[in-house]
Every structure is written in structure tokens, then in C-alpha cells.
Amino acid sequence: MLKTLCEFLDSHHIRYLTIRHSLAYTAQEIAAAAHVHGRDFAKTVIVRLDGKLAMAVLPAPEKLDTELLAAAAQAGEAALADEDEFRDRFPQCEPGAMPPFGNLFDMPVYVEEKLASCDSIIFNAGSHMELVQMSFGDFNDLVRPDIVRISASYAD
Q: What's the half-sphere exposure (Cβ side, CA atoms, 13 Å) at 74?
């Protein structure tokens, strides 16, 4: 996936940095392995909104508030998706390491609004050992996510 993602970014003349780190699975472990603050690492959570798959992107230490997401997405129901429901949508990705590029996977993306105030975004690049860092502005221009409040616990 990293190669595909880099080719996509290169084709759009986007500046980015790839970061390789030791094997880690949870968002907080990944942030520590890559020597970045947890709030600077964006984790991608796959959800169902009225039965359709979508991506929710939020800082590593935060928990998704499905009620806030449902309201923001104008959905009747929002729930975490089971891995079996989405594994086939990400054939080049290790489970749980999907980059937040819904446009590459034909699904909408909802980003916690606090991430939009960051200069850059750091995220998994399809494996549990590789990250990409790029400007949030470039990410926003490419992905066109809905920037909404989806984490009630995020410190103001």
C-alpha cells in the first residue's frame, strides 16, 4: 500500500515524509514507536453509517463517539464495523493499518475537527511498520473529508 499511496501523492505533486518504525499495532504504540505525540497521530476507524462503510479519523488517544458521528453524518445509525465487513475493501493493507484516504477506497471520510487545526497529519500507510506524514492542507485538498466533531473526550 505504501508504494500505491506514494505514487498517488507523487502524481498530485504532494510533499510527504515516510516513517518506518518497529512493529506496533495500537495507535498509541505506533505513535511511541515513531516518536510522535499520540495526539499528532491520526488513527483510521472503519464504521457503518446506516449500513454503509465510512472512515472516521481521530487522534490516537481519542475514542470515537458514534452519536456525534451519526449526527454529523446525518445518519440514523453509526457503529464500529467488524473487520470481516471491511477486510476485502483493503487488499493491500494489513488489518487496522488503512490510510485515511477514503477516496482511494470509495468511502466517505469524517475527520475529528481538532486534527484540522494541526499543521500536519501522520497516519498508517497500510502496514503496522510504515507511516506517512504530510500537511493537513494537502490531505484535505486530496481527500475532501467532512471535518466534524466526532470525539467528545478530546481536550479543548
A: 1
Number of domains in the chain: 1
75, three cell numbers: 445518519
Q: What sign does the dihedral 46-84-63-120 (CA atoms) show?
A: negative
SS3 1: coil
- Evaluate whether 45 touches 80 at the Cβ level (below 8 Å): yes
Domain range holding 6? 2-148
Which CATH number does the domain housing residue 58 bear?
3.90.960.10
Could you tell me how many residues make up the chain?
Answer: 156
Burial class (CB in 10 A: 0-12, 13-18, 19+), 135: middle
Q: 24-28, 36-40, 69-73: which has the highest mean pLDDT? A: 69-73
pLDDT, tens digit, 9 for 90 and up, residues 76-85: 999 999 988 8
